[in-house]
Structure formats: structure tokens, C-alpha cells
Specification:
The structure holds two protein chains of two kinds. By secondary structure, chain A is an alpha+beta fold. In chain A, helix 14 (415-438) runs parallel beside helix 26, helix 16 runs antiparallel to helix 26 and helix 26 runs antiparallel to helix 27. Mean pLDDT of chain A is 80; it is low at 1-6 and 294-302. Chain B is an all-alpha fold. The chains are: A alpha+beta, B mainly alpha.
């Protein structure tokens, strides 16, 4: 069904192929509008900078005017979404569709287009534009300008936690910098010392290493002290305890030695240790935060601007969602999402309820019926009376319970950490014994040997094992399009026994596709013309199907008449063409086509199963996992899919509500849940591990542990395989660590360890663990390769 | 070799200056976004006499 791309022209604005039916130089109205706006403002340089880079999303066509964004200037709104500094008022916008340098250039030109904007910076990584205006400025004009450029803006709520996290990240980076600077200088001095400097100069150098070590001891190592403190308070042994013990004991003994004139000072190894551990932790933390950042789109679930009826002014006005209260009368226009729970007062339409029910078939609504926030209005304008808004709506309550479930999820202790603990305790006891054994005699020597044991064994390698293997795997997964949100997720993944798969959108494409088309070819362009006028998923499917067949410009539609849920008819080129849903539907939706009231053909549409679904289910079974289907859809639809995909009938749950899904998940722990809709959110949050798949809705991105950006069911299998292999790497690293520690510990017992020995051993052991993590296993490499 | 008693503190002082520069830029948020600045470098400044 692929169109012949070589013969298609490229859109002048975005570079994507123009549908053959079109005679314009643009692929869509959106690009046309933006192109002319850019010309008007003399910003053509955009195209020079853009080069051949192509956007993934096309600019939205909207009739947005300044009025649409008026709610951004409302003082109540500003209190929640903006903040004030001495330089001006700030707000952040998530902008859709920014993808390259040219977009950075274009958006940052807003300072020149609008006088009152003093500052605008775009972050390509998370698509957030930070804007600052002066006293006379208005954010509504900024939003309109962004929209005109083709980047739809969404205001982002400045959460307090986001700001705090920022500060903490910065401080962590500074700690690394300081540790690196000090460690580097200490090592320079140490090299001279090992090379044979003596006399007063050597003494000076020793004291200088001591001085340079103090910032490391009192500032850089603080994160370790904190985590050790918390671990001790909750009576647990964490991997940081031996690290802290090593640092403190090492610092103490080295200082004592320094004063005694003994040259066994270990400041170089200790500072390098702190630097190394901080760096690996930082890399791991940033890898995770990247995944988390991409899913903070929660606030875009419902629109911020609502059309509320103002009885005084006798017209609809734009207000922000926070100002809408129960009993208000609002209007929901076509293609807008319903912002509140409410009762329809006037108007009939069809809604896309996929968010709540997972069903792709539109639901009809008429006056006196209840509609829910988050559904999308497909047909005609609706007048609604508000019954619930904000967090009290059904979707709001689902969101809230999802949040609570998320915070309750306890991180599991990793295997490597558990083994390390025991080993570490054993080593600490050993060193204690060595010291106390020596007390009657040469206790100073005993102390040094005990210290040597502690320094060369525990801290370094054990603390590096998991972070290195994990950050490398997580980084590679992120690049392949799989975002993992926590370090323990991979380990959980390897422990699951059952896999619960959502049906619509996960196993299937989520939207109906044409599977049978028995219609005379000469009617194609007429049918295309008519179906292009409708927003119904069936119409879209037919349009997509017929697109490659259209070779001449489509004829204009003279009259059109759509009956929701039944069919559509229109007058094209003098013929009345009608497409009607047939009553008989054994599988999918059956459409009958009539020309001038004579039956001419039929078509069947189905929500098709993804091509790799069957194979993926087989592969999952081969890993000894039991696959289940969990769906809100009807029994027949679900059992059909189950049969085609290879899942046992007894492993199917159908017609389940979001709340029921969550309960079922709980009963089958430990489970992996795979879903994509908001109706899966609670189940995703409750599952032992959860994955949100391609095309997923914002709330499910938030609720799940992993987000897979690439389409298909196969990646799930690869992911499970990868997690098992990564654990194998961790175990291998553990083996290396134990091996090193036994040998080094032996040397330490014999008194053969001195600072030079430690300084060499530590980088060598760290490097080995790093190498082992990078190489991974052959199975791991192959699986990652398959994902690309 | 007595010059080294002058050079060492000098070198450390230099290092300290750069460390302070790093701390100040880090805490003010310059390193929050590490991808976009690489794009921004390629863009020229232009005279600011725009039509509205």
C-alpha cells in the first residue's frame, strides 16, 4: 500500500511528500499557513538553516486567534503557571514539533517579533521553551506567535519539585567537578612522590595532598554520607556503607600517618574513588531523568482553555480550566477534547472514548447523556453542563490513584547489592580482627594493614558493578527508543511470570483498517472526496486506503450528509454516493456502497492485529511467560484477537473497566502489564513492571515504568531478553570484583599493600568492570542490534 | 629548585579560579541543557531592525 515516493513532490515548507491529489506546493494547510507567515515576517532564513531536516509532526491547522490564548493572561492562571523574578515574568511552554537548529533559530526570533519578550530559550531535548516578558507583555501573544510558526504551544506548570531537582542536579555536577579537580591535582603530586621525591619537598607535597583532600572529604562525598545515614536509620545495609567506611577510615589513618611522618597516605586513591563513584552515579541518574522528562506531558490531557457561557455578556468566553465550576455551561467544539465531566444540554455528536474505554469506535451522544473528561468530540458542537471538573472527574480520579500507586512502589534490592553486602560485612569484620589482633603488639602496623584491606577491597568495584552495566544498557535502550525510568526496572523485568497485554493499540493498531474492498475502481476518487469530509475513524481508514490509488485531482463535493454511526452520503460529479454500515458484522465493520441508490460494492474494515503480534506472543511463551489479554472491548472482539495471536481463551479478560483492570493485575503478581491508554493507567501503575507502548496517551506514559517509542509487539520480547542479559553482565562484574578482592585482600593481609599498589589496583579493577559492562554479552549485543 | 615554592601555590590558585568559574556556571544552570547550545553556536547574530 506504499505510494510511489519517487514521483511525489516535496512540500516547500516541511519537505514531506505531497499527496498526489494536491496541486499546491505544500503537503497540508498547516505548512501553507506557516510558510506565508514566515514570508510576512521576513524570516526566510529558516529554510536555509533547516536544510533537509524534516519534522515528524506537521503544523496543526487551527483557527486559533489571540482569543484562544486569552486565558494565559488571566491573573489566576499566571499565579499557577508563571513565576516572577526581578528580571520579569517567566513561563514555560511545551512546543510541539521542534526538531532542528532552524526551529531553535525561529522560536528564539520571538524576542525580535514581539517587543515585550526579553528572553526566550528553546531546549531541543525536551521541547520546552522558556519565555520571559516584561511588565507590559502578554503570554497570549507569545503563544499565538509560536502557533503561527507551526509549533503548537502548551503552558507547563512550574512544579516545585522540578525546580528542586534542578538545583540538586547542578549541585551534584559541581561536586563531581570539585572532586575531579582535587583528585587530578592530588594525583599529579602523588606521581612525583612515587617517582622518588624526598626531603622537605616530599613533606610539602604530602601536606598539599592533605589540603586538596579536605574539599573532597567534606563536600564531594556528602551524597554518600546522606545515603549511609538513611540506610543506618532504617537498619539496612546499603552499598554506600563500605564506601563511607573506607573513606573515613582512610582519611583518618592517612592523616595520622601524615602527622607521624609515615608515608602511607592514601589521599590519591580516596579522592579518585569519590570522583569515579560520583561520575557513574550521575550518568545513571541523568539517563533515568531523560526518560522521566519525556513523560511529564500529563497536563496536556485536557485543554487549558474552555469556552464558558457568560450570561452577562450573552456569549461564550475563553477561561482557563481552573475557573470552571460545577453548574457552568460550556461548549465543546469538534476535534476538541471534553474538559470536564458533564451532561449534554444541546447537540448530538459522536465521541472518541478511547481514553477511557480503549474502544476505537466512536460513541454517540445525545442530550441528557453523561460525557467524561478526556474524550474527543468528533462531530458537532455540544453544549454541556459541568458536573465535575479537575481532579474530581473520572479521569482525574484515575490520575490521582495512579499517582498514589506510583509513590508506594518500593524499589527492590538488586541481586548484586545483596551479595556485595555480605561480602562487605565479611571484609569489614576481617579488617577489624586484623586490627584488634595486633593491639598488644605493633598496633600502628595493624591499623595500616586493616586500612589496606578496606581500601583495596570493598568500595570501588562493588559500588561500580550495577551502575556501569545499567547505565550502558539504559543509554543504548534510550537511543533505540525504549525509555526506562528506574534502575531496578530491568531487574524486576527478569522476575515476571505473566504478561498482560492490552488489546486495542497494543496487539492491534488501534484504528480500523480496510481489509476487504470490493468496489469498482472508477468510484475511488468520488468516495475519497466524500470520506475526506468526515472525521470518523472509518472514513480516515478509507481515505488512507484509497490514497495511493488517486492519480488525478479529487472532484469537489457538492453536498454532504453524515449520519453519525450509520453512514455518509454525498453528491459528487452529479452522482449520489452513499456509504452505509451494514447490519451484519461477523468480523469488524461492514460497509455497503451505493451509487444513486444502487448497491455497487462492499468493504470490510477491521482493527488489524500488528504483524509481529503472533510471533511476539510465541517468543514470550518460549521465555516461559504466560501471556494474557486485558481489554475493555467486547467479548467477541477480544476472543477473536486471542485466537489469531495464540493466547489461551482462559487467559482473556474482556469488557473490563480501568478499575477492574487494576484489580486483576494485583491478583496475579508479579506481572508485566503492557498498555497504551488512560484506561490502562491504574493497571500500569499497580503492575510489578509496566510498559506503555508506541502511540500511548500521556497518562500511561506517566504511569508506566517503561515507554517504548517504536511500534510493534516484538520490542517487548527483546526488552525482556535484554534485561536478563544485563543481569548476567552484572553477575559477571560481581565475579570479577570478588576475584580482585580476594587477591588484593590477600596482599593486604601480608602487608604488601602500599599507596602505590592501591593507586594502581583501583583504576585497573574499575577499568575491568567498565570493559566487562561495555562488551556485555553476545546475546545482549544481538538483541540491541535487532532493536535499531 | 626553590622556584617551585612559588609555582605550586600559583598553579593551585589558577586551578581554583577555574574551579570557581565552573561552580558559578554550574549553579546558575548553564549545564542543564547540553544539546541545544551545540545548535545555537551555528546561528549568526543579525541586525535587529525587524518589521512587525
Amino acid at each position: 500500500m506504499e505510494a510511489n515516493l519517487e514521483s511525489l513532490r516535496a512540500c516547500t515548507h516541511c519537505g514531506n511528500p505531497i499527496p498526489r491529489v494536491s496541486t499546491s506546493q505544500f503537503c497540508c494547510l498547516g505548512c501553507d499557513t506557516v510558510y506565508h507567515w514566515i514570508q510576512d515576517h521576513e524570516l526566510q532564513k529558516y529554510y536555509d538553516l533547516k536544510g533537509s531536516s524534516r519534522p515528524i509532526r506537521k503544523p496543526h491547522v487551527t483557527s486559533d486567534t489571540l482569543d484562544t490564548y486569552r486565558y494565559l493572561d488571566d491573573p489566576e492562571f499566571l499565579k499557577l503557571y508563571s513565576w516572577q523574578t526581578s528580571e520579569g515574568r517567566w513561563m514555560e511552554f511545551y512546543v510541539e514539533g521542534v526538531h532542528c537548529t532552524a526551529c531553535v533559530w525561529l522560536t528564539e526570533k520571538i524576542t525580535e517579533i514581539i517587543d515585550d519578550v526579553n528572553y526566550i530559550r528553546l531546549n531541543l531535548g525536551n521541547s520546552i521553551a522558556t519565555v520571559r516578558i516584561n511588565k507590559s507583555g502578554a503570554f497570549s501573544s507569545v503563544a499565538l506567535a509560536l502557533q503561527n510558526m507551526g509549533y503548537r504551544p502548551h503552558p507547563v506548570k512550574q512544579g516545585e519539585s522540578a525546580e528542586l531537582q534542578n538545583q540538586e542536579n547542578r549541585r551534584f555536577l559541581v561536586r563531581i567537578g570539585v572532586a575531579g579537580a582535587c583528585a587530578g591535582n592530588i594525583m599529579l603530586l602523588a606521581v612525583s612522590l612515587y617517582s622518588g621525591v624526598s626531603g622537605t619537598l616530599a613533606e610539602l607535597f604530602h601536606w598539599m595532598t592533605f589540603g586538596l583532600f579536605l574539599p573532597v572529604l567534606f563536600f564531594c562525598a556528602i551524597p554518600f554520607y546522606k545515603s549511609t545515614w538513611y540506610a543506618l536509620k532504617s537498619k539496612q545495609i546499603s552499598i554506600d556503607i563500605p564506601v563511607v567506611f573506607g573513606i573515613l577510615l582512610g582519611a583518618f589513618v592517612s592523616t595520622v600517618n601524615l602527622f607521624l611522618g609515615d608515608d602511607r597516605v592514601y589521599f590519591d586513591s580516596l579522592s579518585a574513588l569519590v570522583f569515579l563513584l560520583l561520575s557513574t552515579r550521575y550518568v545513571l541518574k541523568r539517563t533515568q531523568q531523560f526518560a522521566l522528562d519525556s513523560s511529564h506531558l500529563l497536563q496536556f490531557l485536557t485543554p487549558a482553555g474552555v469556552h464558558r457561557w457568560n450570561a452577562l455578556l450573552q456569549r461564550y468566553e475563553e477561561v482557563s480550566l481552573n475557573q470552571v465550576s460545577v453548574g457552568d455551561r460550556i461548549q465543546v467544539l469538534p476535534s476538541e477534547s471534553v474538559p470536564v465531566d458533564g451532561i449534554v444540554l444541546k447537540g448530538s455528536s459522536s465521541l472518541n472514548c478511547a481514553l477511557l474505554s480503549g474502544e476505537s469506535e466512536p460513541q454517540k451522544v445525545a442530550p441528557q447523556e453523561m460525557i467524561f473528561a478526556g474524550t474527543v468530540n468528533l462531530g458537532s458542537p455540544l453544549e454541556v453542563q459541568v458536573t465535575q471538573s479537575g481532579s474530581k472527574t473520572r479521569i482525574g480520579r484515575i490520575l490521582e490513584s495512579t499517582e498514589t500507586l506510583l509513590t508506594k512502589k518500593a524499589p527492590i534490592t538488586q541481586f548484586a547489592d545483596r551479595v556485595s553486602r555480605y561480602f562487605v560485612v565479611a571484609v569489614m569484620i576481617l579488617s577489624g580482627i586484623v586490627f584488634f589482633w595486633s593491639i598488644p603488639g605493633d598496633w600502628h602496623e595493624g591499623l595500616n594493614r586493616a586500612l589496606a584491606i578496606v581500601i583495596v577491597t570493598c568500595p570501588c568495584t562493588f559500588a561500580l558493578i550495577t551502575p556501569l552495566a545499567l547505565s550502558i544498557t539504559l543509554g543504548k535502550l534510550a537511543r533505540a527508543g525504549i525509555l526506562v525510568k528506574g534502575p531496578d526496572v530491568l531487574e524486576r523485568l527478569s522476575q515476571v511470570k505473566s504478561v498482560f497485554l492490552d488489546k486495542t493499540g497494543t496487539l492491534t493498531f488501534g484504528t480500523p483498517q480496510v481489509t476487504l474492498w470490493n468496489v469498482p475502481k472508477d468510484l475511488s476518487s468520488q468516495i475519497f472526496a466524500i470520506e475526506s469530509c468526515s472525521t470518523h475513524p472509518v472514513a480516515k481508514a478509507i481515505v488512507n486506503y484509497l490514497l495511493p490509488q488517486i492519480t488525478k485531482p479529487i472532484p469537489p463535493v457538492q453536498e454532504i450528509n453524515e449520519t453519525l454511526g450509520i453512514g455518509i452520503r454525498g453528491l459528487v460529479e452529479g452522482d449520489w454516493i452513499e456509504l452505509k454500515r451494514a447490519d451484519t458484522s461477523t468480523e469488524g465493520t461492514e460497509i455497503s456502497i451505493y451509487k444513486n441508490s444502487i448497491w455497487v460494492g462492499r468493504a470490510v474494515l477491521m482493527d488489524q492485529i500488528r504483524p509481529d503480534a503472533k510471533k511476539a506472543v510465541e517468543l514470550l511463551k518460549s521465555l516461559n511467560l504466560t501471556p494474557w489479554i486485558l481489554s475493555g472491548d467486547h467479548r467477541t472482539a477480544v476472543t477473536q484477537v486471542a485466537q489469531l495471536v495464540g493466547i489461551d481463551f482462559k487467559n482473556c479478560h474482556f469488557e473490563t473497566s480501568p478499575e477492574e483492570k487494576s484489580r486483576i493485575i494485583q491478583d496475579h503478581s508479579p506481572t508485566l502489564m503492557v498498555g497504551d491508554g488512560a484506561n490502562d493507567a491504574m493497571a500500569l501503575a499497580r503492575a510489578f513492571v509496566s510498559i506503555s507502548v508506541h502511540g500511548g496517551v500521556e497518562i500511561s506514559l506517566r504511569a508506566a515504568d517503561i515507554y517504548i517509542r517504536i511500534p510493534g509487539v516484538q520490542p517487548i520480547f527483546e526488552l525482556i531478553l535484554i534485561s536478563r542479559e544485563t543481569l548476567r553482565v552484572v553477575r559477571r562484574n560481581l565475579a570479577f570484583s570478588i576475584f580482585y578482592n580476594l587477591i588484593a585482600g590477600g596482599f593486604a593481609l601480608m602487608g604488601k599493600v602500599n599507596p602505590l599498589f592501591a593507586a594502581i589496583l583501583m583504576p585497573v579493577s574499575a577499568f575491568t568492570v567498565f570493559l566487562s559492562s561495555s562488551i556485555g554479552t553476545s546475546a545482549l549485543r544481538k538483541a540491541l542490534k535487532r532493536l535499531e | 629548585m626553590n622556584i617551585i615554592y612559588l609555582l605550586l601555590p600559583l598553579a593551585l590558585l589558577l586551578g581554583l579560579v577555574f574551579l570557581i568559574a565552573f561552580i558559578r556556571s554550574g549553579m546558575s544552570g548553564q549545564f542543564d541543557d547540553l544539546d541545544t547550545p551545540s545548535h545555537r553556536i551555528l546561528l549568526d547574530d543579525e541586525p535587529t531592525d525587524r518589521k512587525h
